[in-house]
Design a protein that fits this description.
This is Haloacid dehalogenase. With 221 residues, the chain is an alpha/beta fold. The chain is built from ten helices and six strands. Helix 8 links the parallel strand 4 and strand 5.
Length: 221
């Protein structure tokens, strides 16, 4: 008898592709061009939020919200310069292909869409292993709302208890926890272990290569 379907849901930025600091620098520059002095450390902690949420988190609710779209557009243009050379994290593609071979339904849950998502998928280079993508364009609320993870589960056709969510930020862990899935944290996005644990990470690995090497006895066994 075939075993019941299982889903492995992955965040992308900072989890499978080494882009968090590119986002930090390009958001910093977008803010700078608009006259805002935002420390890079603060931006790093906010990466993983959808654009408007990131701006609100960093500039506050009393900001001039008419500027939000221009800030997002500036970040998008600056970050777009890197599309042809986004670096996959070690063994990211190999991890997804191995899980696919072992019967997992692999779904990406990301706030990226359009050309950005295409560039990320090219970097990972494991399209044959990716069953579906839950993009920010498909949901009303980004992480830490559970919506992106719930949408990924719908696409996979799997209940929360048969899924694992892998991510690198506090927002990922909160979203996964609220969606009722087992959360696995990775440190390659630069967020401290304790922060991920406090936000709901069940287990923590260094990066995709570490997760791949530990498949036999980890949550993805």
């Amino acid at each position: 008898m075939a075993h019941a379907q299982r889903a492995a849901v992955f965040d992308v930025d900072g989890t499978l592709v080494d882009t968090n600091h590119l986002h930090v620098v390009t958001w910093w520059e977008a803010f700078r061009q608009a006259g805002h002095d935002v420390p890079m450390h603060a931006i790093h902690r906010a990466v993983g939020l959808a654009s408007t949420d990131l701006v609100a988190h960093l500039l506050g609710d009393d900001r001039d919200q008419d500027q939000d779209a221009a800030l997002s557009a500036a970040h998008k243009a600056l970050y777009g310069q890197y599309f042809d050379r986004l670096p996959a994290l070690p063994e990211a593609g190999a991890l997804l292909r191995r899980l696919h071979r072992e019967g997992w339904t692999v779904v990406l849950a990301t706030s990226a869409g359009g050309a950005e998502l295409s560039a990320l998928r090219r970097a990972i280079d494991a399209d044959d292993a990716i069953a579906a993508t839950a993009s920010a364009d498909d949901v009303d609320q980004g992480k830490p709302s559970p919506e992106p993870v719930e949408h990924a589960l719908e696409l996979a056709g799997v209940p929360a208890e048969r899924a694992v969510f892998v991510g690198d930020t506090v927002w990922d862990m909160r979203a996964g926890s609220r969606a009722g899935v087992r959360c696995v944290g990775v440190l390659c996005g630069g967020i401290p272990r304790t922060d991920l644990e406090k936000s709901g990470a069940d287990t923590i690995y260094a990066d995709p290569a570490h997760l791949l090497a530990s498949l036999g006895d980890g949550p993805l066994a």
